[in-house]
Amino acid sequence: MDKLQELTQKLYDEGLAKGKQEGEALLQKAAAEAEDIVNQAKEEAEAILARARKEAADFKVKVEGDVKMAASQAVQATRTDIENLVVTKVVDGTVDKALSNEEYIKGIITAVAQKFSAEEPADLSLVLPESLKAGLEPFVKNELGKMLGKGVEASFSKKVAGGFKIGPKDGGYFVSLTDDTFKDLISGFLRPATKKLLFG
What pTM does this model have? Predict the structure, then answer.
């Protein structure tokens, strides 16, 4: 009976020891696996954070670049608007006033017509502002033709606000000295000077 009890106790003790060893091994394996999982999760989290930080930095650089470009374009557009305003204010009033003055127009027409007459003798054709017809029609019919010794034909157009167009009759081309062409010409000279004066 004692032998059986002793044998039973021995088997129990060996089984218990073996179970404890296997349990400890399983615990160690589980702990190692858990540590690997935690380490891997940390690495993945760090990679995600690094990627997010890089994307945020790239986005910040892009936004800063876009803002700088927009600001630069806005400043340039504002400068251009100011420049246009100044040039237009200077040019429009001066040109409109000069090219709606009958005496001034007569002087320019005479000078240009004489140049045509000397270099390219031909009858001339003029297009003049409708608004100046009363004052300029008698001048063209009675004075200019006699002065040049050539035929001069004039038509009047509402499309020409100031100035005139002149060219050989049937010559196929005109020299335009209208208010629009004067403004374009003068504006072209004024813009660089105005820009320098306004913005250095």
Answer: 0.47
